[in-house]
C-alpha cells in the first residue's frame, strides 16, 4: 500500500546530472572524437539544438515515439538537421553516435545529497516517484547510479509520450503515488516542474539552479518535506523556493 506522503522528483538537474553537460556538450564530445580540432563551440551548438526535441513542444503528446528506437530515430534526425545547418562535414555520423554517448552510464552522477536525502525521507514515511523528461534508457541509468531501488515508480516522457508540464504527465505521477494525502513535486525547472505541478494541484519545491553548474540544495528541500503540512491559507498549492547550495569553501562544490 502506498505511503500517505509521496515526493515526486525530477531527475536531471535535481537528483542527478550528466557530468559533462547535456545535449550541446554531448555533441561537442562526439565531434572532438570524430573531427579533432573542429571549429564549433558551445554557444552555437546550444543555439542549433534549441528546437525539435519533444520537450520543446510539451503541449504535443508523442505516444508514437514510445518505442526507444522510434524515439532515438526522431532525436537523431533533429540532431542531424542541426549539424547540417552548422555545416558539419558528416552530420549523419555524428548524430548516430549521440545515443551511445548520451546514455553512457559513466557520464552520469547523482548529486552528493541525493541518496542520503531519499533515505532520510523514506525513514520518515515518504515514498518517491520519479517524473522526468528523459531518454528511453533512463531506467538503465538509474540502476547504474544505485537509485532505482529507492523509487516506487518511474514516469518517463520517452515512454509515456507526455512531457512535463503537460497535465497528463502529472496525472500519471499522481496515479503512481496512490492515495497520498500529501503530494509534493521537487524540481529545478520553474516551468516544467513547478508551474506544471501547481497547475495540477500539487505542491511544489523549486530547488533553483541559477547556473548550470549549481548544485540543488536537497537538504533544504527535505527540511520542507519534514515540516508538518501547513494549514491551507487560500494560496494552495504551495510553493517553496530554495536557492542553490552554497559552497562550503572558497571554491564551489564539485559536481563532476
Overview of the structural elements:
- With 256 residues, this protein is of the alpha/beta class.
- It has eleven helices and eight strands.
- Helix 6 (114-123) runs parallel beside helix 11.
- It starts with a strand and ends in a 14-residue tail after the last strand.
- Mean pLDDT is 92; it is low at 249-256.
Q: For the CA atoms, what is the radius of gyration?
A: 19 Å
Round the mean pLDDT to the nearest integer and report it: 92
Tell me how many strands there are: 8
Helical content band: 25-40%
Alpha carbon gap, first and last residue:
38 Å
Structural class by secondary-structure content: alpha/beta
Basic shape: globular
Largest sheet: 6 strands, parallel
How many helices in DSSP terms?
Answer: 11
Write the element-wise H/E pattern from the N-terminal end onward: EEHHHHHEHEHEHHEHEHE
How is the topology of this model organized?
Blueprint: E1 5-9, E2 16-18, H1 23-34, H2 42-48, H3 68-85, H4 91-96, H5 98-102, E3 108-110, H6 114-123, E4 126-132, H7 138-144, E5 153-156, H8 157-160, H9 167-177, E6 182-187, H10 190-199, E7 203-207, H11 218-225, E8 239-242
Parallel strand pairs: 1-4, 1-6, 4-5, 6-7, 7-8
Antiparallel strand pairs: 2-3
Helix pairs in contact: 6-11
Amino acid at each position: 500500500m502506498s505511503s500517505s506522503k509521496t515526493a515526486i522528483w525530477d531527475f536531471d538537474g535535481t537528483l542527478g546530472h550528466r557530468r559533462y553537460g547535456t545535449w550541446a556538450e554531448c555533441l561537442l564530445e562526439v565531434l572532438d572524437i570524430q573531427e579533432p580540432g573542429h571549429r564549433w563551440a558551445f554557444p552555437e551548438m546550444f543555439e542549433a539544438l534549441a528546437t525539435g526535441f519533444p520537450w520543446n513542444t510539451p503541449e504535443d503528446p508523442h505516444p508514437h515515439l514510445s518505442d526507444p528506437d522510434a524515439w532515438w530515430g526522431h532525436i537523431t534526425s533533429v540532431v542531424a538537421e542541426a549539424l547540417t545547418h552548422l555545416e558539419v562535414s558528416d552530420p549523419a555520423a555524428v548524430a548516430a553516435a549521440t545515443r551511445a554517448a548520451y546514455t553512457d552510464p559513466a557520464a552520469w552522477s547523482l548529486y552528493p545529497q541525493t541518496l542520503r536525502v531519499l533515505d532520510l525521507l523514506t525513514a520518515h514515511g515518504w515514498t518517491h516517484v520519479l517524473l522526468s523528461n528523459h531518454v528511453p534508457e533512463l531506467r538503465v541509468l538509474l540502476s547504474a547510479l544505485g537509485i532505482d531501488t529507492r523509487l516506487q515508480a518511474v514516469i518517463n516522457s520517452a515512454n509515456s509520450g507526455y512531457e512535463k508540464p503537460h497535465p497528463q504527465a502529472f496525472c500519471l505521477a499522481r496515479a503512481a503515488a496512490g492515495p497520498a494525502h500529501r503530494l509534493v513535486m521537487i524540481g529545478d525547472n520553474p516551468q516544467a516542474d513547478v508551474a506544471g505541478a501547481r497547475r495540477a494541484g500539487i505542491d511544489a519545491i523549486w530547488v533553483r539552479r541559477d547556473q548550470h553548474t549549481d548544485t540543488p540544495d536537497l537538504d533544504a528541500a527535505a527540511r520542507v518535506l519534514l515540516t508538518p503540512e501547513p494549514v491551507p491559507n487560500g494560496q494552495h498549492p504551495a510553493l517553496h523556493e530554495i536557492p542553490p547550495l552554497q559552497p562550503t569553501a572558497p571554491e564551489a562544490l564539485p559536481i563532476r
